[in-house]
Amino acid sequence: MNEILVWGSKSRERAWRPAIIGLALGLLIPALAQGAEVVKLTLNSVLVVQESKNGQVSEAFQPALAVKPGEILEWRLEAENATDRPLRQVALVIPIPKETAYLEGSAPALPWGGVRILPQFSYDGGKTYGLPPLKRRVRSVENGQEVEREVEVRPAEYTHARWLLPELGPKAKVLLKLRTTVR
């Protein structure tokens, strides 16, 4: 499945429909800022299914053509440096569709040149990023007075995950993954 998918709905069941615009633009804009066809990006989603064989439970992956609330999707972003030169400060982003919720701990650190690159998350549509736990300021009325306090953002509220690579070598590829639960 080499297409970028976004939500569509026909009846009560949520169904996936291929769409290139929207999600593709959100992924390609950072790459285009560095030049045409510098980083080739492919985003796929698969349905994660639990299978039991001989008393052993394992995971299998199926095309995410139709999904139901509670099911788990794995998002896979493959990025390839399409040039013959190294690229520096490459930001790779996986948007989290609003019809899903990020599954805490499912975006692994990326081993890179002897270091681990931790994913950063956004809860505000990709405007700001940070390492968990994310905090935000909220205002509420308590005892008739407006009070501002800091609260922790739940992982289910994350809208984007981002990995910042210090360098992506010539023709190098990297695969990033995270999981979401269908709402």
Would you tell me the structural class of the helices and strands?
mainly beta
Low-pLDDT runs of 5+ residues are 1-34
Counting DSSP H or I runs of 4 or more residues, the number of helices is: 1
The ordered H/E elements are EEHEEEEEEEEEEEEE
Order of the strands making up the biggest sheet = 4-3-6-15-8
Mean pLDDT score, rounded?
A: 85
Cα end-to-end separation: 23 Å
Label the overall shape.
globular
Number of strands: 15
| Strand residue percentage | over 45%
CA radius of gyration:
19 Å
Q: Main sheet?
A: 5 strands, antiparallel
Percent helix, as a range, is: under 10%
Please characterize this protein's 3D structure:
The structure is a single chain. The protein is mainly β. 7% of the residues lie in helices and 55% in strands. It contains 1 helix and 15 strands. The strands form 5 sheets. The chain has a 5-stranded antiparallel β-sheet, covered by helices on one side. A 3-stranded antiparallel β-sheet has the order 1-2-5, with no helix packed on it. Strands 7-14-11 form a 3-stranded antiparallel β-sheet. The model is unreliable at 1-34 (pLDDT under 50).
